[in-house]
Write a structure and sequence with these properties.
By secondary structure, the protein is mainly β. It is built from 1 helix and 17 strands. The protein is globular.
Amino acid sequence: MKKLLCLVSAVLLGFTSCSKDDNNDSSEPASLILVKKIIYGESEGISYFSNYVYDGNKIISITDEDGFVMKNTYTGDFVTKIESITESGNLDTTTEYSYVNGKLSFSDRKITNQDKYNRTKFVYNTDGTVSYQEYTIDSKTEIETIKGKVVKLTFKDGNLVKRERSNNDGSQTVDVYEYDTKNSPFKNALGFTLLDEEASVNNLVKKTQTFTSEDGINTIYITTYDYKYDSNNYPTEVRITYQNPNSPESVETFKYTY
C-alpha cells in the first residue's frame, strides 16, 4: 500500500556516508544483510507489506501489496533518481538528486503534469551541521520562490541527533533523537544514507519533539521505539508508540525480513 511506501521512504530518504526474540537469524556477512520485506501494522489491526529488490546492495525497487512501486536509478554508487509509479503503472512523482564531492547538493521533486516542482538545497556548515532550504520552482520560467524556513541538522556518529526549524508563523520546532548501538535495517543499502535526514547507522529509540508557539508556549510530543533483534544485532521488529498531549496514545509496528 502507498502509505507504507511513504513511511518507508521517510526512513530511507542523512547526509552522512552510507530484547532477545531471535526469529530471523542470519549467518550472512554483514555487507549482505539486506531487508527483503517489511510488514507494517496499525493499532487497529490493519497491516500492509512492501517487498525489496536489489542489485548487489543497491535497492532497485520497492513494491507494496497493491502494486505501487518506488523505482531507484543509480549513477555509480549514488542514487540519482527515484520514481514513484502508481498501481495502474502511471508515473506519479520523480525525485532527482545531485551531488558535489560525494555529498547531496540539491534534490528536485516533480509531480507528473504539475506546473511547479519542489527543490531542496543543502549547505554543509563549518561546524559540521547541515542546513537545507526548500523552494517552489515554476517549470516554465525556472523562477524560484522560497517555500519555508531554513532547517538545521546536527549529526553524531552517523546519526541525526537534532533537527531545528523555524516556521513561517514565528513558531519553532526542535526534534531531539536518541539511538541504541545496534545496526539499523538499511545500514547496508548502498546510497540511501545520503538521501534521508533521518537515515541512521543505529536504531532510533526515542524522539522528543518540542513545538514552541509564537506566544512562547511549549508542547512536547514523544515517540518511543521498542525493538526485537536477531543474532547479528539487526532489528526484526519495532513497536513505535506515539505520545501526543492532545490525543490518545497510538502504536505502529514494523517487522523486517532479511
